[in-house]
Amino acid sequence: MAIRFSSPNQPPPPQPVHIILASQSIGRKQLLEKLGLRFRVAVARIDEEAITDSDPLIMLKKRAAAKLAEIIDHPRVYMINDEAKTIVIAADSMAILGKKTFGKSRDREHAKEILKSLMDRTHTFVTAVAIAVLDGGSVKKIWEKQEKTSVTLRKLNSTELEQYVTRYDFTRFAAGYALSDAPWDLVTKVDGSYTNVVGLPFEVLLPVLRHIKIIE
């Protein structure tokens, strides 16, 4: 899929809508920046850990939808301009291995436990995306979709694992790792969407942005 990034020496193209990213994920912000989009971050005030389901795919969908609903249901709290067209982008990611799910780690030991479970194995990394378009203060359309990617991690020895949880902020990433911050070639294979593993799959996002004519 060809993606046209903005040149750093050129101003971004005209943008007829306001964009809100309902996430404080560094990876998601970097992906939107690479598209040359102007946006602001508004973190949804929900307890996503309280949203559960026996099916992890349904749980992810519910969490992304809850983040989106929190933003669009409270336009004053999140400073949505009801006189402008606005797009709100929400997402939630996790790793799945068999019947186990791995989100963000609680602490250092939990991060080590997660990585030990995933190392030397292939897991599925899933991101659920929920996007809404508002115009005149009313919701005009909502898109909800998931993307799956197979990821293989190599096995770190005890010293490497200890160095990893010491040097990197594992609390920011689902499953305790990030493609941009993975040391020692931790990620050995990505089969599927790279941007999905970063946290915002372009396979889901770009068709929506093209539909509402934000990008070509």
Folded structure, characterized:
The structure is a single chain. By secondary structure, the chain is of the alpha/beta class. It has a single domain (18-211), classed as Alpha-Beta Complex (Maf protein), CATH 3.90.950. It has six helices and seven strands. It has helices spanning 26-34, 56-73, 108-118, 158-167, 194-198, 202-211; strands at residues 18-21, 40-41, 86-97, 100-102, 122-135, 138-153, 187-191. Strands 1, 2, 3, 4, 5, 6 and 7 form a seven-stranded mixed sheet that branches. Strand 3 (86-97) and strand 4 (100-102) form a beta hairpin. Helix 3 (108-118) packs across helix 4 (158-167). It is elongated. The two termini are 13 Å apart.
Tell me the number of strands: 7
Can you tell me the CATH architecture?
Alpha-Beta Complex
Largest sheet: 7 strands, mixed
**Total domain modules:** 1
CATH level 3 topology: Maf protein
Estimate percent helicity. Answer: 25-40%
Q: What gyration radius follows from the Cα positions, in whole Å?
A: 18 Å
Question: What is the string of SSEs from the N terminus onward?
Answer: EHEHEEHEEHEHH
What is the CATH C level class, in words? Alpha Beta
Shape: elongated
Beta-strand content bin = 25-35%
Mean pLDDT: 89
**End-to-end C-alpha gap:** 13 Å
List unreliable stretches of 5+ residues.
1-6
Total helical segments: 6
**How does the helix and strand content classify structurally?**
alpha/beta
